[in-house]
Write a structure and sequence with these properties.
heterodimer; A: alpha+beta; six-stranded mixed β-barrel; 10 strands; B: 228 residues; 6 helices; globular; binds adenosine-5'-triphosphate; binds magnesium ion
Chain lengths: 391, 228
């Protein structure tokens, strides 16, 4: 048997290159089809992915939390219920939260700025589990000190040591939290955290329980069983609390964006389909034109497989070159568009966006090969004499 | 007893054009011995090319058998026929049939590519063959359309010799050439024959007969006489 020699393929490659060059205009037209197809598929993928990233990025939760809140009609979660939750296994920590909405007044120069915030009564250890300190320290128990979220600090231009006024009481800012983004548990960025004593002073007739209980699970895989356990314990007789896992939102967001991406890429695929047909057309014309050449090749010792290989190689060349061009144009174009319109290109150079570029690249090559398959097969099946006689 | 290299047994080739049946060959039988120089003669349309194409494994008979090296062609698949064409047969066409995108030397390399020869080796051999076919070396890198008819025919001959064939088939190799150039080509064929290659030439030209040892005369698809 003949051993496929890598050097031998050089001449096939050379032949493919020359044949593509011989019909330069036609080759370029076919390549443009592929290029557009690749661009369409990968940029649609990137678009969907960037949409997804920009939305999911604004959520901080990885989804290892369970939010327990009273059902409508129940005002709060009792200490007893919190104890019941604590008995459930696989729980990392239970954070009972008391909160109220407030207008903060802050004097700056001569004017008084008003700002709506949420005031929380959370133990300082528990707060540590939800957000990190950017600067300063935690409030001391029993003091009138407070820690504020990053967006409050930014919007009110707060520095450590300054005072804010809530409901007539002055609270001293001793710590500022790191920006955390939107969450499903509590919104630390626009929260004011203070001691229980201070909170009690602000809300003298607050409920005897908690507005929410945040449960952090040890292992995200156990989230469902923990949820079930909590429900079973507390809602044994009556429906008292609703339990909700933060990852359920990210999960459904994920599936929404997956379908958006798929839909967009479907649109891209149509253009690639058109490109495939144009490749088919180009290669078919080229086999017709080269019928005589195929006859000669066969007469001097080319087998069906050799002919098939030559034509497929040509399609492959076209596909690789066009797809590479398409991929480069996609990355370059996306970069340009993103930097000009959104002024943020970070979503482009993510693994998931690049995956769509790679996918578009391979789709382009596959389309080209598929389009070249039938003409190549047709060429290989020509009878040598008929091919030689063809004018 | 001399070895038979090609055995044609009651070969019939029928072309059907609408209602009409054309007997391009009608029960043609002939044996060709190894090392022979055969001319196939006959008027236009007598079936010469049809017969030669069968010997070149380019065409199969409607009925009857063609045996090359004692192998029945009808028993071979594409791979088998290809390997026979590639390794045992060199074909020189009347119309040269060179590949226009390739240079003279590359055209000669083509059969060696399908044979799996390494690039360096095949280039060297191709240049040697061109020299042997008396193409001036400065034309080796010319494309066929930059060559004269005679030069193209020389390239075609060099290509036919690429894989060292045991049988060399030529369909009116001098038909497109002036008589002097034609003479040169025939001399070359004689030289090759003397080196041991079986040469089978289709020709109109009675003067070519002087080169041959055997002549197969065809008329309306039938052998009229076969002189010893
Ligand atoms: N593909 C074909 N279809 C129909 N008829 C054909 C075909 N090929 C050959 N023939 C017929 O078969 C007969 C023999 O043709 P062939 O080409 O063998 O003749 P030839 O002896 O080579 O003639 P010439 O000297 O003109 O080349 C002719 O009558 C021709 O018309
Ligand atoms: Mg003829």
């Amino acid at each position: 048997m003949r051993i496929p020699d890598p050097l031998k393929n050089n001449m096939y490659a050379e032949l493919a290159r020359r044949n593509l060059k011989r019909q330069a205009v036609r080759t370029v037209l076919a390549a443009i089809g592929i290029i557009i197809g690749v661009i369409a598929i990968s940029s649609m993928g990137i678009l969907g992915n960037s949409l997804k990233l920009s939305v999911t990025d604004s959520f901080s939760d990885i989804g290892d939390k369970i939010i327990v809140s009273p059902v409508p009609g129940e005002d709060f979660i009792t200490d007893k219920q919190v104890d019941q939750i604590k008995k459930v296994s696989n729980i990392e920590s239970v954070i009972p939260v008391i909160s109220g909405g407030e207008i903060v007044e802050y004097k700056k120069g001569g004017t008084t700025i008003q700002y709506y915030v949420a005031v929380y009564d959370i133990k300082k250890d528990d707060l540590d589990k939800l957000a990190d300190l950017q600067e300063g320290r935690h409030f001391k128990p029993g003091s009138t000190e407070c820690v504020v979220g990053s967006s409050i600090a930014k919007n009110l231009d707060l520095k450590l040591g300054q005072k804010i006024e809530i409901d007539g009481s002055n609270l001293r800012v001793v710590g500022i939290l790191k920006e955390r983004g939107l969450g499903f548990d509590i919104n630390t960025d626009s929260g004011v955290f203070t001691s229980s004593e201070m909170y009690g002073k602000l809300y003298p007739d607050a409920d005897e329980g908690y507005g929410t209980v945040i449960v952090i699970v040890k292992d995200i895989d156990k989230i469902d069983s923990v949820m079930k356990d909590i429900k079973e314990r507390i809602n044994k007789k009556d429906e008292l609390v609703t339990v909700f896992a933060t990852n359920s939102i990210t999960e459904s967001l994920d599936s929404v964006f997956k379908s958006i991406s798929l839909f967009l890429m479907g649109i891209g695929s149509i253009s690639l389909l058109v490109a495939g047909v144009s490749i088919l057309n180009v290669m078919l014309m080229s086999t017709m034109e080269r019928t005589k050449e195929i006859g000669i090749m066969k007469a001097v010792g080319a087998s069906r497989r050799d002919i098939l290989k030559m034509f497929l190689l040509e399609a492959l060349f076209l596909g690789v070159i066009a797809s590479t061009a398409g991929a480069i144009l996609t990355i370059g174009g996306s970069y340009l568009i993103m930097s000009l319109l959104v002024k943020n290109t970070s979503y482009l150079f993510t693994l998931s966006s690049m995956f769509y570029v790679v996918e578009g690249f391979f789709f382009g090559i596959a389309t080209s090969l598929l389009g070249g398959m039938y003409p190549a097969w047709k060429a290989s099946m020509m009878r040598p004499l008929d091919a030689l006689r063809y004018e | 007893m001399p070895e038979t290299i090609a055995d044609i047994r009651k070969v019939t080739k029928i072309y059907t054009l609408g209602e009409n049946k054309i007997y391009a060959l009608n029960k043609v039988s002939a044996k060709i011995e190894k090392g022979d120089f055969v001319t196939i003669m006959g008027s236009s349309g007598s079936g010469k090319s049809t017969l030669l194409n069968m010997l070149g494994c380019l065409d199969l008979p409607t009925s009857g058998k063609v045996l090359i090296n004692n192998t029945d062609l009808s028993k071979l698949d594409d791979e088998g026929l290809t390997s026979l064409r590639r390794n045992n047969i060199g074909f020189i066409f009347q119309q040269f049939n060179l590949i226009q995108t390739l240079t003279a030397v590359e055209n000669v390399e083509i059969p060696m590519i399908f044979n799996g020869a390494s690039p360096g080796k095949r280039r060297k051999r191709a240049l040697k063959l061109l020299q042997r076919a008396q193409l001036p070396p400065e034309y080796a890198d010319h494309k066929p359309n930059e060559l004269s008819g005679g030069q193209q025919q020389r390239v075609a001959i060099a290509r036919a010799l690429a894989n060292n064939p045991t049988i060399l088939l030529a369909d009116e190799p001098t038909g497109n050439l002036d008589s002097k150039t034609g003479h040169g080509v025939m001399e070359l064929l004689r030289e090759l024959n003397q080196a041991g290659t079986t040469v089978i030439v289709v020709t109109h030209d009675p003067r070519m007969e002087e080169y041959s040892r055997t002549t197969i005369r065809l008329q309306d698809g039938e052998v009229v006489n076969e002189n010893p």
